[in-house]
Amino acid sequence: MKNFATAAIALLAISLSQPASADSAIAQGPGGKWYQRIDTTLNWTQARDAAAARSLFGVVGHLATPLTEAEANAANSVRSGSCWIGGNDLAVEGNWVWVTGELFWVGGAGGSAQDGLYENWNGGEPNDQGGEDALEWTGGGFGGWNDLNVTSTRSCYLVQFDVGPRPVPLSPLAAIAAAVGIAGFAARRLMRKSA
Prior knowledge:
By secondary structure, this protein is an alpha+beta fold. It has a single domain, classed as Mannose-Binding Protein A, subunit A (Mannose-Binding Protein A, Chain A, Roll), CATH 3.10.100.10. Helix content is 28%, strand content 28%. It contains four helices and 14 strands. The chain starts with a helix and ends with a helix.
């Protein structure tokens, strides 16, 4: 009985320590990369800084940097509407880099992807209209990328955590249900032994 109760309490404590909340969605992608959508209205710089202040399994996050189509699929699975991701050309106009340092696109709408890295620009983008230097992922379904002014705001941003393969964290409600189930099983077993 003590072992079952201890397991139930441990499961509950672990699940409650995870970052799942009503204002976010989280998914595991290839190579142990995790993606989380945070629903709050920020400009790109604020979103970049907020992403770097988040952690999962002890690993600090950053705005999402989908380098491959498989990573983009995982990131898109939590995206809703127009969200900030980690691309920008703040240092050199037309040289699009991820917040993690990879140069992924050179040029405007007629530019080219670099080193075989993934890109998903909407038609006619990036166009630097009015000094646009930050990257948003916009549109329904799979959507596409658009350059936007860093001072514009979006209602969500995508955080990436490069933590390696891990189990999907339980939501607090699922953990409580599991703990109640384990406790019920243990109580039933104890009652059978005493009968």
